[in-house]
Amino acid sequence: MNAPTVSIVIPAYNHAGYLGEAIQGVLAQDYPNIELIVLDDGSTDATPEVLRKYSGQFYWETQRNAGQAATLNKAWGMAKGEFLGYLSADDLLLPGCVSAAVEALQASPEIVLTYCDFELIDPHSRVIRTVRAREFDYREMVVSLTCAPGPGVFFRRAAFQRAGGWDTALRQMPDYDYWLRLGLTGAFKRIPRTLAAFRVHEGSATFAATPPEQADEPVRILRKYFGLTGVPAAIRQHEAQAISNALLVSAQLHLRAGRYRAASGCVRRAAVMYPGNLLQPRVVRQLANGLFNRLGHRLLWSLKRPRATDGRP
Questions:
Q1: CA distances from 276 to 28, 117, 206, 245, 247 (A)
Q2: Is the pTM of the predicted complex or chain greater than 0.90?
Q3: Any idea which fold 6-199 has?
Q4: What is the pLDDT of residue 305?
């Protein structure tokens, strides 16, 4: 296997407590040709101090706050790699992640993106559970809003150039919007190994209460997607079902933030658009997640919280 350059971008915003661990995970990879770029997106915490500790080991800079999507687009525009990836400042790459991705991409030219299984970890980096990602199914990703790629994603620069960058108007689900567009350029491949970690904590986007306009992003994303000219006919015929599912995801996000009236409205609209969706067991799990997910994680954190000891076993 030759060693093309792999460019990994970390967009850092007010995650100083986790950033060093994310950086160390990249620096510890066994792959020999990694370009690491960290952009501090106007953090107001100790992020610059953390980065100064790594002076000379990789490129970093501080910029005025621009948001995750704009920061990633800027960094990928600077990157030199044949393969591109990104890592949230509170997530981790586990040993062997980059090597496995490069091997899979080089073995199958038709593959444009790889993703892996990952650990779900708490604020103290303790494993909550292992997430076995779904095998990739583009139709399922569009229609059911299953976003298989998580941390540990790598994709070809050529596919990135065809798909365009992340939508800077999105805050909640810019990755999902991008995977939809990138998936039009080629297939994704799951690597069935646990090679990354996704952290859930009070400040993470998937845990925090979502503002109303961000909770409505799933519907906007799908409506924009079905307005593209390159959507296959076999996918386009499921537009009503997909929009209905997007409304149910919006309901989940409203529930998580305690906006029960807004959630109820989304469920009603979803039922009118595609009644069969409400008969699916996953919808019950999805709405229950919206009601109890944040409480459940807080309980887990409290149960696993390190106890102070006096030195005795």
A1: 48, 30, 27, 10, 14
A2: no
A3: Spore Coat Polysaccharide Biosynthesis Protein SpsA; Chain A (3.90.550)
A4: 52
